Amino acid sequence: MTTPDEHRMVSPMSRPVALVTGASRGIGRAVALALAPTHHVLVGGRDADSVASVVAGLESAAPFVVDLTDEAALAAAVTGVGRLDVLVHSAGLVTFGALADSTTQEWRDLMELNVVAPATLTRLLLPALRSSHGLVVFLNSGAGLTTHRGFSAYSASKYALTALADALRLDERGRIRVTSIHPGRVATDMQARLASLQGLPYVPDAHLDAADVARAVRLAVDLPPDASLDSVRINPV
């Protein structure tokens, strides 16, 4: 886990600060790269080596290595975040299968990482976000708006994340902005694994590029403070 002093020592206050969870790969990594030209990026992830690799490639960055489902560790990690302008929730878990074939533990794991962890992290960082009149971005899914056969548990977690974002937006209106981004299928390692679970071919060119999703995050970040991109759906053409 990253110590508080590591954050304080390397965070240049001349730059706005963005924390991106799940930033060691996939969409989260693309978001970190998109924010790097203008922000000091706290690169979130569980694997220290993978996080360090991303940090090394950014102009201004620091590691935020923590298990998001460990509340005590999370509370300790955020004590080092003195300033925060943008919080991007990208970490998540996906499963595929009918309700009849699912287990209680699968449901708990999905809800814990996809819903409870973002709620906990946001709550812990609200003072810093309020101070900066910051932005919270939930990288959700099309499954958080429309469900499909075989995605009962995953879609339920993403619908819950949509509700969390909507509730937070109402609670904090005038203090922070909240954006929900709902991408369709994105060409990532997770999508390749999901295609395998479904018994479908994985064709990256038929999917969104992670950089396209990151551009939507960048759009929300770059809006003037009196405007909010509340929700956006992105699909491959």
Notes on the protein architecture:
This protein is α/β, with parallel strands linked by helices and 237 residues long. The chain is built from eight helices and seven strands. It has helices spanning 4-10, 26-35, 48-56, 71-78, 104-132, 152-172, 189-198, 210-222; strands spanning 17-20, 40-45, 61-65, 86-89, 135-139, 177-183, 231-234. Strands 3-2-1-4-5-6-7 form a seven-stranded parallel sheet, with helices on both faces. Strand 2, helix 3 and strand 3 form a beta-alpha-beta unit. The protein is globular, with a radius of gyration of 17 Å.
Fold topology:
Layout lengths: L3 H7 L6 E4 L5 H10 L4 E6 L2 H9 L4 E5 L5 H8 L7 E4 L14 H29 L2 E5 L12 H21 L4 E7 L5 H10 L11 H13 L8 E4 L3
Parallel strand pairs: 1-2, 1-4, 2-3, 4-5, 5-6, 6-7
What are the defining features of this structure?
237 residues; 7-stranded parallel β-sheet; 7 strands; 45% helix; disordered N terminus
Q: What share of the residues lie within helices?
A: 40-55%
Supply Rg. Answer: 17 Å
- Count every beta strand, where a strand is a DSSP E run of 2 or more residues: 7
Strand line-up in the sheet with most strands: 3-2-1-4-5-6-7
User: Kindly state the mean pLDDT as a whole number?
Assistant: 89
Outline type: globular
Strand residue content: 5-15%
Task: Give the SSE string.
Answer: HEHEHEHEHEHEHHE
